[in-house]
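Lab notebook page, bench 4
Experiment: in silico fold of construct C2
Operator: M.H.
Input chain length: 142 residues
Purpose: comparison with the prior construct
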Amino acid sequence: MSYRNPAPTVDIIIELGDHPHRPIVLIERHNPPLGWAIPGGFVDYGESVEIAARREALEETGLQVELIEQFHVYSDPSRDPRQHTLSIVFLATATGEPKAGDDAKGIGIFESWRVPENLCFDHDKILRDYWRYLHYGIRPRL
């Protein structure tokens, strides 16, 4: 019997601690689906989600991150048009100047309430949840 399971992924909301107002880093994707996204990617076999989050952040932004906490898990089967994925989302901090790398075509630093409209996947929902948590301490509901 063959099993079809969702692919585990990580997304990292990176707050830049050396900028005023602690903005977040987004990448402009080089590969479809095109648009802006929270840095992240697939967890490799044999890799913990924490290691995957640090690796993906470094590969896509050039930043060494400090993971602060697991924020939430997003698992809607339609969140990624390519396949069924689930994402463990982390909150992290970093200092320095991000540089686009890996599959990132570009990089941007944004205030959490002024992000681009053309966000990929379910990242608009994730960032709305993050904004609500940041300003009101309200976590996403299950």
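Observations: The two ends are 32 Å apart (CA to CA). The longest helix spans residues 123-136.
Next step: discuss at group meeting.
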